[in-house]
Amino acid sequence: MEHIITAVAFLATGMIFSLWERSNPARKVVYRETILRDFGSAICGLIFDVLATIVLPYTWVDDWQFSIVLGQWLDTNVSLWVRFVMFFLLSDLLYYGFHRLMHDPLWSIHKWHHFPRQLWWLSGMRASFPHVLFVGFPLFLFWLMNLPLGFILVYQIVLACLNNWMHVNVAAPWMRWFEWLVVTPRYHAIHHSISLTHRNKNLGAIFTFWDRLFGTYLDPSLFQQEALEFGINENEEVSTLRLMVGL
Predict the structure, then answer these.
(1) What is the spatial distance between Cα 11 and Cα 114, in angstroms, rounded to a whole number?
(2) Are 164 and 125 in contact (CB under 8 A)?
(3) For residues 46 and 3, is the Cβ–Cβ distance under 8 A?
(4) Which residues contact 122 (CB under 8 A, 6 or more apart)?
(5) Radius of gyration (Cα) for the chain, nearest Å?
(6) Residue 20: which pLDDT band, with cuts at 50, 70 and 90?
(7) Which of 98, 105, 50, 114 is nearest to 243 (CA)?
(8) Crossing angle, helix 80-103 and helix 150-167, to 10 degrees?
């Protein structure tokens, strides 16, 4: 049921962002050239999400003695909402670390995500199965921090909406005021640049301070959004199936 609710939230925000993109695009997107493949990739991504919950059930955390002791201590000493905020910070830090690994040395499992040459809200759903496993791994913190299971649904809905948000194709210079704290579409667009130098920058998913702290920040104000080129600049031809599998 949680996957259905997440999918509904994903599609609802996607429709809103579609209208926004049409009214104020940052770059020209020829939708007929990419829409079928991107929707197919989105369906595969949802299937991968379901499979990931089978591969990574996290039930082992419940039986881990350290998890039991830590959970009891947190229940007694730290409020539920403080733990939830801590989870968002720690999970985003873990994602940042995994994201760096997926660029070097595990580029093959992340290449499919960077393959699109046109960037719009649905482009972000391109993810290989190993990529989905990496992104889902921080969920073990829910059990480690003894958070209610209902919070998982909230977290997954937030991630689905943020994934749409960071890839949306809109011209909005006012976003720079938010980039001191959170990732915006123009901030993340630099990361999808075909340039290898740009591709290894702006790796954060929710917060931008990890990039500033660990030296991977690149100011999006230095670039004209309409002039950015996307995709991967590699001579090797790899089949779509291999890209989706992450080989």
Answers:
(1) 21
(2) no
(3) yes
(4) 14, 35, 38, 39, 42, 164, 167
(5) 18
(6) very high
(7) 114
(8) 50
Closest residue by Cα to residue 45 from 113, 160, 132: 132
Residue of 26 and 58 predicted with greater confidence: 26
Report the mean per-residue pLDDT for the chain. 84
Neighbouring CB atoms inside 10 A of 52's CB total 20
Task: Examine the pLDDT at 236 and tell me if it is beyond 60.
Answer: no
Task: Give dist(CA 182, CA 175) in Å, integer.
Answer: 10
**236: phi then psi, degrees, rounded to nearest 5:** -70, 130
Structure tokens at 22: 């049409």
163, 141 Cβ separation under 8 angstroms: no
pLDDT tens for each residue of 178-228 = 999 999 999 999 999 998 889 899 999 999 999 999 999 999 988 888 788
Distance CA 76, CA 70 (A): 10
pLDDT at 34 over 80: yes
User: Cα angle vertex 132, ends 126, 134, to 5°?
Assistant: 130
Write the burial class of residue 236 (CB in 10 Å: 0-12 exposed, 13-18 middle, 19+ buried).
exposed
Q: Residue 37 in contact with residue 188, Cβ under 8 Å?
A: no
Q: Which residues of 216-229 are buried (b: 16+ CB within 10 A; e: fewer)?
A: bbbebeebebeebe
Q: No. of H helices and E strands in the chain? A: 13, 0
